[in-house]
Design brief:
By secondary structure, the chain is mostly beta strands. It is built from no helices and eleven strands. A hairpin with a 4-residue loop joins β7 and β8.
Length: 126
Amino acid sequence: QVQLVESGGGPVPPGGSLRLSCKASGRTLNGYTTAWFRQAPGKEREFVAANRRNGDPTYFADSVKGRFTMSRDSADNAVYLQMNDLKPEDTAVYYCTANSRLILSALRLSSMYNYWGRGTQVTVSS
């Protein structure tokens, strides 16, 4: 079992930045695909970014490409989502998720992930 806890969300003005953290316990994330999804009010959960393992490319949704980066820290057993140039449409609850290594075609599908955190709220507003 993998337990995931997100942190780092909060209010931020348009154009601002936030860094979300996802700390794992129970097992090391080294062998896991990790990802971030988000869900805005009244909308379905959507893919944000995913990484199969350290050293592999990270895949991003078109809506965040060029603004968000994702990283892993093996020592901390954590993953991070750096979000820059935030826009009001980025407002959502952000979820960290993980599963045993997934094939590329499955990375963007929330149904393929077994382990989820409870989420952290990001609100972009002036």
